[in-house]
Amino acid sequence: DTAVSQTPKYLVTQMGNDKSIKCEQNLGHDTMYWYKQDSKKFLKIMFSYNNKELIINETVPNRFSPKSPDKAHLNLHINSLELGDSAVYFCASSQNLAGGPRGETQYFGPGTRLLVL
Amino acid sequence: QKEVEQNSGPLSVPEGAIASLNCTYSDRVSQSFFWYRQYSGKSPELIMSIYSNGDKEDGRFTAQLNKASQYVSLLIRDSQPSDSATYLCAAARGANAGKSTFGDGTTLTVKP
Predict the structure, then answer these.
(1) Touching check for B92 and chain A: CB below 8 Å?
(2) A99: pLDDT confidence band, cut at 50, 70 and 90?
(3) β-strands A73-78, A19-25: how paired?
(4) If you average pLDDT over every residue of chain A, what do you get?
(5) DSSP-derived 3-state class of residue B93
(6) Which residue in the set A41, A97, A106 is minimally distant from B46, CB to CB?
(7) CB A66 within 8 A of CB A73
(8) DSSP bridge partners of A73
(9) φ and ψ at residue A84, rounded to 5 degrees
């Protein structure tokens, strides 16, 4: 039973295309996240939703649009893909905002490896 | 200067030794610090969090924080080959690990 799942696992596409990545968690968590990890292993938060509401929106191009239809799902749509978008995109979830005195732990999905040609 | 700096490694230690991973951060307002472990081709896993100066121990892992020196470390005692991974240090202004700034990671290899 996968706690945090993402589809697709691999995505190879041409520049200029529009693509979506889906994420689902079955942990009953309230908060979900999207991260981008580039080829140098640099991990950066992109977005976070808590109970379907956007709470973290880092400086990312507006070609990236997250959508949370319910608190178990957080999808990422990317318009007009560029070469620099090639990376691994990780979805994660936590019961509440991760970290903090209660030590909330984030659980990461397996990642979606996006390659833009 | 990067907000969170780590030695990229690779760091190689023999099995049974203590592995010491270091991290410095530039944002003095940072309050929360996290260590993640990431096996090759896998997703990150949060293994330690620390908020106060001093040491925090969890099994073979000890996190150390010195806010005056803006320094965080992770010690792994009795290192095992299964500890071989990339370790990511992260710092956050608030308590939210999801709002963290990450370092580039240190690759650790534990040799049998």
Answers:
(1) yes
(2) low
(3) antiparallel
(4) 88
(5) coil
(6) A106
(7) no
(8) A24, A70
(9) -70, -10
